[in-house]
Amino acid sequence: MTRERRRPALLVGLGVCAVALAAAPGCPRPPPSPPAAALDVDDPDLLASSEAIEPDFLVHQRVHATFGERELVFQAVIQAARGRLTVIALTLQGARVFTLEQSGKRVSFERHTEMALPFSPKHILVDIHRAYFRFAASAPPRGDHRVFRQKGEIVRETWRRGVLIDRVVELAAAERPERIAIHYGSGGPRLLERPLSYRNGYLGYTLVVTPLRFVLLRKSPAGPDAPPLLRPAGSSHATEDE
Prior knowledge:
The protein is mostly beta strands. The chain has helices at residues 3-6, 121-133, and strands at 37-38, 57-67, 70-81, 84-90, 96-103, 106-111, 145-150, 153-160, 163-171, 180-184, 196-200, 205-216, 219-220, 223-224. It has a 12-stranded antiparallel β-sheet with strand order 1-6-5-4-3-2-12-11-10-9-8-7, with helices on one face. The protein has a two-stranded antiparallel sheet with strand order 13-14.
């Protein structure tokens, strides 16, 4: 049996071994890890409620990160389903590194490896919200530029023909004149379908994110189908956005 055929069907054909929360046969099982612990986010208002994130989706990304002289490439899977947001970081071989889970504005964190993170995982989640969710309800401006303030952050956006191109965020209370600069490349209609570069000047790291696959999760009359990340191998009830 080839390696390709052994990969689980949990990610609706994304082909990422060991991304499932319940490991499938043929995938290396990670060492036992401590249970998920509550993660204290300094200001919960910097997170959109997971219950407000619509529609339900799953996206598989490749992330190239630089932090000082350190550089690494890893995979990420972000899923919103049943009012819950799940973020899983994996090595290129598919081994889980950590899992972030948000329910409402409550956040938990689970580490699956001894690999040290250069900063608290709460910053990762806040940055994901800055890039994709917190300002999602904002309508395109009439012109090409918009400046507004939200939750102690000054946001400057550049739009082109109704499409967001750049977002610069400055922390109003910061003592250093740094900024967070996000540039969105071309792609699908949703921000999650577009490549982006994310430079956090306050923490000194840069992310280059490439979406590999974006899937909308099909809903049933009783609500969204069981999230693929939690399904046994061999089942698949999501549909790709067409």
